[in-house]
Amino acid sequence: MSSIVLFGPPGAGKGTQATAIMEKTGLPQVSTGDMLRAALSKGTDLGLKAKEYMEAGKLVPDELILLLIEERLKEEDAENGVLFDGFPRTILQAESLAKITEVSMVISIEVPDENIVERIVGRRMDSKTGEIYHIKFRPAPHEIKHRLTQRKDDTEETVRSRLNAYHTQTAPLADFYEDLGILKKINGDQDIVDVTNSIIELLV
Ligand code: AP5
Questions:
Q1: How many angstroms separate the Cα of 45 from the Cα of each of 36, 48, 122, 141?
Q2: What tens digit of pLDDT does each residue of 30-67 get?
Q3: Known catalytic residue at 37
Q4: What is the pLDDT of residues 105-114, one digit of tens each?
Q5: Residues lining ligand 1, judged by CB closer than 6 Å?
């Protein structure tokens, strides 16, 4: 069993690129952000505990995230590894992950901070399929525009706090994985399709 980690700041394009990686590797996507949002919309205990952190753009406590991951990795489709998206995000999460599964590659999508706010504030989601669009960089087809939604934490104010959490708590993980020799850096400041092609080259 060997997993891949998609790493990068908020709005780097992790969710956008996950589809191509899943198609190429057959690994299922495990997005802690998506799992937390699902828990929140179901009103579970975990979702309610996570809510205030997510809305403030702060990281949800490690113990809650690790419980979520341990449960997810017990599922049958995770037997041969998964594609982690947005996890791990702290050194403690990375160390805990190393004890439960092998990570073969960490794909770091690098995007300058000045691009992030525009990407996040312009992001829209198809409420039916979960497909990710952008009002400028990836406009949705006209016929689905009525069902586009915006994430509650995709505001300019919250994204600044998410970026701060990224720089202080998550970015240090790059060194952690560089030391293990498995960090692969990708220029995320190019067209979506060019980012995809750069990632696919890593996977062949
Ligand atoms: P999460 O859902 O993981 O959010 P995030 O890390 O902030 O990442 P995003 O989903 O915002 O960005 P993305 O990189 O997937 O970008 P996307 O492809 O959508 O986490 C949300 C919250 O949950 C956290 O703040 C925290 O509270 C909590 N949480 C989650 N995991 C946690 C953990 N492990 N520990 C603790 N707390 C946790 O792209 C963004 C936009 O840009 C889209 O509109 C897209 O169309 C566009 N775009 C993508 N690529 C390009 C490109 N190359 N050029 C132009 N536009 C592009």
A1: 11, 5, 31, 37
A2: 999 999 999 999 999 999 999 999 999 999 999 999 99
A3: no
A4: 999 999 999 9
A5: 8, 10-16, 32-33, 36, 53-54, 57-60, 65, 86-87, 89, 93, 119-120, 122-123, 132-134, 137-138, 162, 188, 192, 195
